[in-house]
Amino acid sequence: MEYNPLYDADKGFKLMPSSFHDIGDVEFQDNWGRVWVDLGTSDFFAIDVLLNCLTVLSSEYLGIQQVVFGGRNMGDWKRG
To answer: What InterPro entries does the annotation carry (predicted)?
Structure first.
């Protein structure tokens, strides 16, 4: 059987890297939790991976009810 990968390593090396630039610590307040993520040059696939991670975390451990993207202030979140 001949090995024929779909991924072209030469093309991959020529593209701009796509990764999260920084991920902050999770902060909690009352029944809210938030985390700061700098997506940088990451693509939509990275957002999909992040949402899938949150889905598994929710179904197995936490029961996340809402995910919000963007903004610095969430409702009455107290600065600390």
So the answer is: DUF3531
CB atoms within 10 A of CB 44: 9
Q: Is the pTM of this model over 0.70?
A: no
- Residue 54 falls inside a structural domain: yes
In-domain check, residue 46: yes
Give the C-alpha separation, 41 to 48, whole Å: 14
**Is residue 67 in some structural domain?**
yes
Q: How many domains does the chain have?
A: 1
